[in-house]
Specification:
The protein has 78 residues and is α+β, with helices and mostly antiparallel strands. The protein contains one helix and four strands, in the order βαβββ. The chain has a domain of 50 residues: Signal recognition particle alu RNA binding heterodimer, srp9/1, CATH 3.30.720.110.
Length: 78
């Protein structure tokens, strides 16, 4: 998984709410197996879509939703 920290130059009150992150990867099945073995909270099981993409979703400890899949829109970078 990828983690990010937010830094502000001065104390600023912020409200953190769950977000959704979409990650395109080539070997989703292997990624899914590693995530499940590591204890990830899988919220949408590995599946193949009508377009042939393979995808699944999991939540991190901050309840952010991470979706992993092979689908890349036309014109996007690999």
């Amino acid at each position: 998984m990828v983690a990010a920290r937010l830094w502000w130059p001065r104390p600023t009150p912020i409200i953190l709410v769950p977000r959704t992150v979409v990650v395109c990867i080539d070997d989703v099945k292997r990624h899914y197996e590693r995530a499940r073995a590591a204890g990830a909270v899988i919220v949408r099981e590995l599946n193949e879509t009508d377009s042939g993409a393979v995808e699944y979703s999991a939540r991190d400890l901050e309840r952010n939703l991470w979706s992993f899949g092979t689908y890349r829109p036309e014109g996007s970078r690999p």
